[in-house]
Amino acid sequence: MTAATHSPLFPRVPETADAVLDGLDPEQREVALALHGPVCVLAGAGTGKTRAITHRIAYGVRAGVLPPASVLAVTFTNRAAGEMRGRLRQLGAGGVQARTFHSAALRQLQFFWPKAIGGPLPRLLERKAPLVADAAARCRLRLDRNELRDVTAEIEWAKVTQTVPADYPAAVVRSGREAPRDPAETGQLYAMYERLKGERSVIDFEDVLLLTVGILQDRHDIAEQIRRQYQHFVVDEYQDVSPLQQRLLELWLGERDSLCVVGDASQTIYSFTGATPDHLLDFRVRHPHATVVKLVRDYRSTPQVVHLANGLLNQARGRAADHRLELVSQRERGPEPVYTEYADEPAEAEGTARRVRDLIAAGVPAGEIAVLYRINAQSEVYEQALADAGIPYQLRGAERFFERQEVKAAIAALRGSARFTANNPLLDDVEDLPSQVRALLSGQGWTSEPPAGSGAVRDRWESLAALARLADDFAAAHPGATLSDLIAELDERTAAQHAPTVQGVTLASLHAAKGLEWDAVFLVGLTDGMLPITYAKTDEQIEEERRLLYVGVTRARVHLTLSWALSRSPGGRPSRVPSRFLKGPRPGSGSRAGGHGASAGGIERGGTGPLAGAGRRRPRGPVRCRVCGATLTEAGAMKLLRCEDCPSDMDEGLYERLHAWREERARALGQPAYCVFTEKTLMAIAERVPATRGELAMIAGVVARKLDRFGADVLAICAGEDRREEGVTDTEGT
């Protein structure tokens, strides 16, 4: 019999307890050896905190100090708990329990409910929203879908902060929380929700913790039984615990101090859910003799990325900032972070897509690239830019823009009005397309001013506002366009963004990116008003926005690009300024616009760096019409290099041949026609009739990937050949 081949998928279990310590750095080793008394691990981003605490547990188990069944490791997501269990098994400590707070509490509640209360445990609600809606109806309140989501979130916040309905209005004032509805009204609705739960014998997710806390407080015999079972506790992401979770942990512990907590106050970004870093920051106050270990060796990011992350925190203020960790990269040097300023949002999205394409061409897998933004409503322009560039993508933590309920409803309303314009009173005395769209969106709840605060209502407004802005841009690019024309454009975009993807670039909000990492990260939309977000008013809210940017920066292993746009749309007034958080860390940020070019400071504007538009020469300075000489500002005009109103010298016959060829190629590829080339690009080709590959590459819209894929066909057609039949076979991607 031959020995089993060692596989990296099934690493060899360490033979001894001491072997568990192999490969740990000095600080991680200190964590693993600190098996007695309270232990606080302050672990910066990328410092191997999960490695440290799993090796601590495994070493304690393998050394006979920690009986595996007596250890409870607690974290915040099922994914993290599963990862911890897997690592512990690989280290020979498979009997340890690793769970979320809720799953651990639910097991205890199910076991002890008959003894403590009697009868079966009430049914657990899978979703609160239907019951909250019933409570609103009982209170004679009307809530739309987004208001319902916001009120549900408020009830969850109240429960995790152990706030009863009667105290909710006062708690909102004390916390400085921006409530989505009148606090007294929400308190009334919260009370009715609790009443309905009792009538229907159901409990919700937060009740699992509340009821477990109640039983452990009232029944000392049950509390002691649990304490005999679990004698050693480990809590990951301790900066995110809520007051309710902290209370449950204290009841689990009793008078003991066999507790190890791990966290980083600089990564506290969920205060709106009730999370607070105070328990982490006050750990030494509650446990004066605690062992404190700081992990600062960053194994994730290059020195350049780490330097920027440290620079961000050097400007921070408040309690969390006083406990910040100065990270030290353990990796080889990499490229400098790139700071890119764009004229407008579409240019920023297109420039980002170009750089993504170039990174993929340079060997970075698409799945190792992420585009991160502050709010989900920002995703649409990046979805479109990546789709136009033929780059697969996947959204994390949010629906695709055109799959969002409010967007679907708004487009349905626009479609209906396009058919029956004369019968819609909302369109009385409204003539131009943007005004028509805004009038129709007002019927969907859109207003010219955003609602106060954050939450689902704000998210809904941002989605509708994105549609309104899209209508502005479409009307500017297509003078005289009708509502029906806009609907056709939206249908094309919807079709492109619904294309199935498997392995692609990640699009995610900064909140959804927490706990993840990529080789290359693009942080986009970094302007004051977006990061920090407009409704961040207090000093602490501003500091949490800074920490959100810090989390985004520390997601990057090697490549990091930070960008912003000076105006929303092409030709708009450049009134925006880069995020205040970039002042200092960004080289040359003493001036408003910063430096220029890929200098030693890594400053880049508008995709002028070595990875942006490689192999192409873009016009520098103002782009002027080749007919009348006027400065061009609209994207479509810049692609044609002439004003829309200036006479065209397009070869109509060539345009028709290119159009027919494009239809056949698109059909063969199973893609929308504009994924081959857009109408404007075809027009530009037919006007300029390129004779060489270099001339074709000069045309905006003919990116390197499309030049390689379609260039030979296009040049042959321009030379008079018919390539419609012989060029349809394409095996790329099959």
As a whole number of angstroms, the C-alpha radius of gyration is: 29 Å
Report on the biggest sheet: 7 strands, parallel
| Helical/strand content category | alpha/beta
| Uncertain residue ranges | 1-10, 498-502, 591-622, 726-734
Overall 3D shape: globular
How many β-strands, per DSSP?
17
Oligomer: single chain
**Number of contiguous helices:** 28
> What percentage of the residues does DSSP assign to strands (E)?
5-15%
Q: What spatial order of strands do you see in the largest sheet?
A: 13-14-12-15-16-11-17
How far apart are the first and last residues' alpha carbons, in Å?
A: 42 Å
Residues in helices, as a percent range: 40-55%
Residue-averaged pLDDT: 81
Write structural notes for this entry.
This protein has 734 residues and is α/β, with parallel strands linked by helices. 44% of the residues lie in helices and 11% in strands. The chain is built from 28 helices and 17 strands. Strands 13-14-12-15-16-11-17 form a 7-stranded parallel beta sheet, sandwiched between helices. A 6-stranded parallel beta sheet has the order 3-2-6-7-1-8, with helices on both faces. Helix 23 links the parallel strand 15 and strand 16. Helix 6 (129-138) crosses helix 9 (183-200). The chain is globular, with a radius of gyration of 29 Å.
